[in-house]
Design a protein that fits this description.
This protein is an alpha+beta fold and about 180 residues long. The protein has five helices and four strands, in the order αββααββαα. It has one domain.
């Protein structure tokens, strides 16, 4: 009886592996969670309504036609299409980076979270004309701008990406070497 081959399973076309599709599944999970929670908020709150949860946190329903911190929110509407196009271009670039780094851990995690968050907010811009925000933290009258699950995923993704970029080169080489199969 012939000896079983220890060769790794062939990759999908263009170097796409199960790991790549796993990272895409994580991005899809972020989109699904973001949209589910937004649907729940939209079905239960009226625009501008605030539901106190603690002394420093409220659920609110607001629409942000701008970017982070309502940047460009007061413009005539062109920013909607600009932010959709920008998010799609960034997602395309991150997908290419995800493919390149798919065998690592930290960077693909970061890319997946950012892609999922960006797609969640793009869906809002297309469907609602603005991003649905609902998490509002404050101390007295001073508050942080309302945000959502997609924004949280993007923020965590950027933090992980920065951490991955600034850790020592020895750690980075260990990250890829542990996931590669020796020949």
């Amino acid at each position: 009886m012939p000896e079983a081959s220890r060769e790794p399973a062939p990759a999908a076309p263009h170097g796409l592996t199960r790991r790549f599709f796993g990272w895409l599944a994580l991005a899809a999970l972020v989109v699904a969670l973001d949209q589910l929670v937004k649907w729940l908020v939209l079905s239960r709150l009226d625009f501008g309504e605030a539901v106190p949860v603690t002394g420093f946190f409220q659920l609110v329903l607001v629409y942000n036609p701008g970017a982070a911190f309502s940047f460009l929110a007061d413009h005539s509407g062109w920013q909607r299409w600009f932010f959709i196009a920008l998010a799609l271009v960034v997602c395309g670039w991150l997908l290419a980076m995800l493919r390149h780094h798919q065998r690592e851990r930290a960077l693909p995690l970061a890319f997946s979270l950012i892609i999922g968050g960006a797609v969640g907010n793009v869906i809002d811009r297309i469907v609602h004309g603005a991003v649905v925000d609902f998490l509002y933290f404050h101390v007295g009258r001073h508050g942080w701008p309302a945000f959502n699950v997609a924004d949280s995923a993007i923020t965590v993704g950027v933090a992980v990406m920065l951490w991955a970029q600034f850790r020592s080169p020895r750690d980075a080489s260990r990250d890829t070497s542990t996931s590669e199969n020796p020949s």
